[in-house]
Design goal:
α5 packs parallel to α8 and α13 runs antiparallel to α14. Helix content is about 70%, strand content about 0%. The chain is mainly alpha-helical.
Length: about 325
């Protein structure tokens, strides 16, 4: 039988060893070596950041300067005296054709175009993607192939036929016609995103719901939708960015009183009458791009989650 004193000494030794192991490694932390690979990676990222940030910096500082200071020619210098008059003029006074009410009218037109187009296209595309992923029907693969092909057809090819169709429907030149156009053109790529996302979800959930007697809309509303917030955010960002930044459809399918913000921005920047006010042009450009930036920064984390969770998986 072992001596109690020996057992106590052994136990104390184990306790001391475990304490040292539990406290983690000791000594100086090893320094990371700056390898040629790291230099190349960080150098490339730094150059890419400069490529995008320097023009943005020039736009911001120019929009906060008066014209006398801009005429000095140093576009990189910060403003000696900050003024928000160019922003006010771009919003409410700049001429965008025959009207001189700034971008405010175009902003509300863009809002009235973007909100219904985004909501309707996402709802329809989510149902389409859900049906193609979980409810196979005869000809579903052919239908899906047609959608994919439609996503890659150049918009310019279909402009004239769409003009004819909208004219015959009596909605050419209206906001309603432009909303329909954006909804239709957003459908193929959004359907692809939703279909791929729903395919990546566990199939056992769908089968269990079917065994319990749940139908098409019950499974969609109670199971699929609560699990699909990331992909809905992805679709929302893509649609808002694409519709808000659109120029071609806005200038082709609407009249001047319904022009979206991008068309009015083009009219301000390319105006050939009067003095060229670069500070107003820069302020108008920043105002036009503000909404997509806000949407992305507010929901950017969910956008990354949606992409990683199956938005680009086949």
């Amino acid at each position: 039988m072992a001596n109690p004193a020996t057992l106590n000494a052994t136990a104390a030794g184990f306790d001391a060893v475990s304490d040292r192991l539990g406290s983690g490694p000791r000594g100086r932390k090893p320094r990371r070596r700056l390898s040629s690979r790291n230099i190349m990676v960080y150098g490339t990222l730094f150059v890419a950041a400069l490529y995008y940030l320097v023009p943005l910096y020039v736009m911001v500082v120019t929009s906060l300067k008066g014209m006398p200071e801009i005429r000095l020619g140093n576009i990189f210098s910060p403003p000696m005296e900050i003024t928000f008059e160019p922003w006010v003029k771009a919003w409410s006074e700049a001429c965008t054709g025959l009207n001189c009410d700034g971008l405010s009218r175009g902003f509300w037109n863009s809002v009235r175009i973007t909100i219904p187009s985004t909501i309707v296209s996402i709802i329809i595309a989510s149902v389409n993607g859900y049906a193609l992923a979980n409810w196979k029907f005869k000809g579903s693969e052919v239908f899906f192939t047609i959608l994919i092909v439609g996503a890659f057809i150049p918009y310019q090819v279909m402009i004239y036929p769409i003009v004819i169709v909208l004219r015959e429907m009596g909605i050419y030149g209206t906001l309603t016609g432009l909303v329909i156009v954006h909804t239709i053109f957003g459908m193929p790529i959004l359907t692809l995103l939703f279909r791929n996302y729903f395919v990546s979800l566990p199939e056992e959930l769908f089968k269990a719901a079917r065994i319990d007697g749940a139908g098409f809309w019950q499974i969609y509303g109670r199971i699929m939708l609560p699990m699909s917030l990331p992909i809905f955010v992805v679709a929302m960002i893509l649609q808002i960015t694409g519709i808000w930044n659109d120029f071609l459809f806005g200038v082709v399918f609407t009249r001047p009183e319904y022009y979206p913000m991008t068309v009015q921005l083009n009219n301000i920047v390319n105006s050939v009458q009067g003095v060229k006010e670069y500070n107003v042009n820069m302020a108008a450009t920043l105002l036009t791009g503000l909404i997509p930036l806000i949407v992305y920064f507010v929901s950017g984390r969910l956008f990354v989650r949606g992409i990683a969770a199956g938005a680009v998986k086949g």
